[in-house]
Amino acid sequence: MLRLLRAVPATVGAVRIDPGDRDAHAAILETFYGDVDEAAAIAAISLVSADSPLGMPNGAFVVTVDWYGAVPRTYVVWTRDNVIPASCNVASHARSTLSRTRRAPSANSSVRIDCSLNSRPFSPPSSRTL
After folding, report:
1. pLDDT per residue over 66-111, tens digit each?
2. What is the dihedral of CA 2, 19, 116, 79, to 10 degrees?
3. What is the rounded CA–CA span in Å between residue 102 and residue 83?
4. Does the N terminus or the C terminus of the chain have fewer Cβ atoms within 10 A?
């Protein structure tokens, strides 16, 4: 994913790629569309905008001891994710935070699901295998 960035996200406030850059098409195909039919992937790339807002990462929020772990959550980890490496995903971060703080939320508030797909997340649902 990093090789596709055309600006520093924190500086421009967006994840900026250039779907119109013909030289970047091979990297875009590999990163986002994997084994999707090339014609379908090219059609999808034509719908991609150059900027995706960062949104939540730029927003301020407060985490307190009383509220930490209060909202049930489910982590879905794509084992073949070309965008977010396993070492950087939310589930990995949550596990490392829990191991550092030794404060675990209630037993039923967190579930980790590993999905191994033949296709990338943006591929048609009919080609997915869970």
Report:
1. 776 677 666 666 666 777 666 666 656 565 555 555 554 444 344 4
2. 10
3. 29
4. C
Residue 43 sits at the vertex; the CA angle it makes with 38 and 49, to the nearest 5 degrees, is: 125
Q: Which amino acid does the sequence have at 129?
A: T
The span from the CA of 12 to the CA of 31, in Å, is 22
SS3 per-residue string spanning 10-62: HHHCEEECCCCCHHHHHHHHHHHHCCCCHHHHHHHHCCCCCEEECCHHHCCCC
Q: Is the pTM of this model over 0.70?
A: no
- Residue 16 reports pLDDT greater than 70: yes
* Cα 64 to Cα 23: distance, rounded to the nearest angstrom: 46
Whole-number pLDDT of residue 59: 58
Chain CA centroid to CA 118, Å: 17
Q: What distance, in Å, lies between the first and last C-alpha atoms of the chain?
A: 24
Q: Which amino acid is at 48?
A: V
